[in-house]
Amino acid sequence: MSELRKDIIGGRWVIIAAERSKRPDDFRRSTEVKKKEKGKFCPFCPGNENKTPPEVFAVREKGTKANQPGWLVRVVPNKFPALQRGQTPFIQKSDDGLFFWMEGIGVHEVIIESPDHNRELADLSIGHLEKIIETYRSRMIEIQAEKQYKYIHLFKNKGPEAGASLAHPHSQIVATPIVPKRNLEELKSSSELKERFGQCIFCRLIEEELKRGERLVYQNDHFCVFTPFASRFPFELRLYPRRHSPWFSEIDMAEINSLARTLKLVLYQIKEVLADPPYNFYIHQGPNPNSGRDCPNGVKEYYHWHLEIIPILSRVAGFEWGTGFYINPISPEAAAEFLRPKK
Amino acid sequence: MSELRKDIIGGRWVIIAAERSKRPDDFRRSTEVKKKEKGKFCPFCPGNENKTPPEVFAVREKGTKANQPGWLVRVVPNKFPALQRGQTPFIQKSDDGLFFWMEGIGVHEVIIESPDHNRELADLSIGHLEKIIETYRSRMIEIQAEKQYKYIHLFKNKGPEAGASLAHPHSQIVATPIVPKRNLEELKSSSELKERFGQCIFCRLIEEELKRGERLVYQNDHFCVFTPFASRFPFELRLYPRRHSPWFSEIDMAEINSLARTLKLVLYQIKEVLADPPYNFYIHQGPNPNSGRDCPNGVKEYYHWHLEIIPILSRVAGFEWGTGFYINPISPEAAAEFLRPKK
User: Fold this and answer.
1) Domain B18-24+40-81+106-339 has CATH 3.30.428.10
2) Contacts with B228 from chain A: Cβ below 8 Å
3) Do B322 and A283 lie within an 8 Å CB cutoff?
4) CATH fold of A3-339
5) 3-state SS of B17-49?
6) B250-260 pLDDT per residue, tens
7) Is the ipTM above a cut-off of 0.95?
8) What is the pLDDT of residues B86-122, one digit of tens each?
9) Chain A within 8 Å of B323 (Cβ-Cβ)?
């Protein structure tokens, strides 16, 4: 089992998942090795269902059996999980008070988005995207039921440069036994800003961005997409539901359809305008609503779930690592102009 | 001139340096393009001194002229600076209180480490490394004299995957008109931990790591190097001066010699053990001691400068971007064992 460790000065936890790999040779030029892996056996393709742990959920054609072909979307536990299911771990502490750690308890699942090895989200039908989003919601609801999973993080890595170790299109869910530092910061800040502005700061920003329009890329009945005013990365995007809601799991069917159309459009624009770059996306939401005091009551009022998309076009370097300060070589207004669909 | 912008929710500033590049085509597959640039003209090689802005400092053979060959280490302003020299900028604010920005005032210099295009720090002599470190100190002292530069960040990117846009070995200095978020957090945390432990938390950790030894990679009279207990990245290293000091500029000649030996050894170990990977390193230090209230008096007692080295062996992906939580596939104890010089 992996271990969580806390950096006493930085205040952040890390996951030491040492089982995943052991010797320096495993790290040597790992990127180059991966490029050679094209055409290799794929455990996510139909017919290879027995090469993954047994599925925990699937959208299937009627009459097909679990762990057999016939699925449209399939969810399996990660074969090399960063965290494993279990009960709330105890935080342990060295006698000198300097070192803190706990067992690596959590959930790590893979959502295989399509049977087709070569079709990315931008290439799928709206109906197929709806099934993927319904699957996201369904997994969130099931994992939320267990209170020891304090935060549920859903994300996608597309392309080796974005950290994908397998090419077959997939997303991942990692549920952690603590609320991660970055999410805690956003909660604290949005709680303070709710006091200052008298309303959810995300609702306020959405209102203003829709009015200004200069960073707006797309909007429909339920969602809007814009480039953030202080974008860290070129062509970074934020996708917000217009209805205030702290948790992704509260999305309804009309919103699922709207989100499918929004995602397809913006991922298609990224693909076309930026020549199919690698990208990451992830959802930010409130802590697990069933996790007790890790999810204070106020979260309902001041937090607003959203999805962040980062095309991988530049490298993070010594300046950014050292300061947390980013240098972005294109203005968010110019990026929005390029990404906005042309009539 | 570039612009600094603040993310009201995340609390972090970013630099929008839009002059540096403009169209989506400039971002398309930028990594692949860079690989093809090998063998291209190099503005940092001797003989091409007129292709950079005029030098602001150099270590030169006696009798050679500024901006002519004959230098061992050469410092020039960055030709495409992220920030430009000027007076303290005013923070500006939109009427609705949502958007904050200021002029991109600061310093951005390049330290060309050697006339030799192909010799990296690990390949240079101790004497040459001493000259580079003396240059670092000299630039720090000069930039610190101007109080509008609140924080001075020195860093190195080696290899395109680490963000280096030119292959010729070089480091960079960026001085910013605010203290960056990550450094502010470390200052706040080390101030609190000083109260709790009754001594500088870095001095305390160094003591403990030297005693335990399991994460120690190297030590000499003035420096020690270990893998942090909660390492974010495989083979991440921290290099600490044993003498308590908040600012790099306070380093003395004996320490410069010791640091040259320490850097050469650990960079050589990284090169040998990990097959010459790309890497980033950067110095963390207190805010500019001449910057007034941005550098509270207590900094002297609770902050301790250090150098962090990150070999680029894995990719930052959607999990890390979304949560600030890192998954490290090798334990810091195993990493230290591999990197420790064999007798």
Assistant:
1) yes
2) 7
3) yes
4) HIT family, subunit A (3.30.428)
5) CHHHCCCHHHHCCHHHHHHHCCCCCCCCCCCCH
6) 999 999 999 99
7) no
8) 999 999 999 999 999 999 999 999 999 999 999 999 9
9) yes
